[in-house]
Write a structure and sequence with these properties.
Layout: H1 3-33, H2 39-46, H3 50-56, H4 60-76, H5 79-85, H6 89-104, H7 120-144, H8 153-160, H9 170-187
Organism: Gryllotalpicola koreensis
Keywords: DNA-binding, Transcription, Transcription regulation
InterPro entries: Homeodomain-like_sf, HTH-type_TetR-like_transc_reg, HTH_TetR, TetR_SbtR-like_C
Length: about 190
């Protein structure tokens, strides 16, 4: 292959990668506003044609899952940021979980897509980075004394999963905060088998 052909191919690959990122970013923003937004609106916001969108994401669920994976990857790397911007590890943990809920909550149109068989690999791949972020926040809370030692990140993720099921309104947010307080009250004691 000539270097001219390689350069052209490299340029096409860069353009395709740029289009993919633009589509995911547009989908993230528009799904947050309306999970049923037409994909033509996503393509328009991304500055690509609908054919380009479908080449990257043949189905709506493919795009939803890509947006989910992108958000989880981004969020999983922000545990340190949450600790730096909050006055306590507990406040950082709550802040981080509220952000996670914002990414996953049904308002993003992810609820049904994340329960499909096709989503299982994406969800599985997000488990490691999410668990690592929770472990970092958990360790900081144990060090400050706001959570007792002995709790497992997987257990806390399961406990906090209610956050992406509360309503996407002021009442739901208030309910979520009450439930978070209940979870954290329970986490002040070491886990005990029944």
């Amino acid at each position: 292959m000539s270097s001219e052909t390689e350069t052209g191919y490299g340029t096409q690959r860069k353009a395709a990668a740029k289009n993919r990122v633009a589509i995911i970013d547009a989908a993230h923003e528009l799904f947050a506003q309306n999970p049923l937004v037409p994909l033509s609106d996503v393509a328009k916001k991304a500055g690509v044609g609908i054919g380009t969108l479908y080449r990257h994401f043949p189905t709506r669920d493919d795009l939803i899952l890509a947006a989910y994976q992108h958000d989880i990857d981004r969020l999983s790397s922000t545990a340190e940021d949450a600790l730096a911007r909050n006055s306590s590890a507990k406040a950082a943990f709550v802040d981080w979980f509220e952000m996670l809920a914002g990414y996953i909550r049904i308002k993003h149109g992810l609820g049904d897509a994340l329960h499909s068989a096709a989503a299982q690999q994406v969800v599985d791949e997000s488990w490691g980075p999410t668990s690592a972020a929770v472990a970092k926040l958990l360790d900081a809370c144990v060090a400050e004394g706001s959570i007792a030692p002995g709790h497992e990140p997987a257990d806390i993720i399961t406990l906090m999963s209610f956050l992406w099921r509360v309503a996407n309104n002021d009442e739901g947010i208030a309910q979520g905060r009450r439930l978070i307080a209940t979870v954290f009250n329970g986490l002040t004691s070491e886990p005990q088998p029944l």
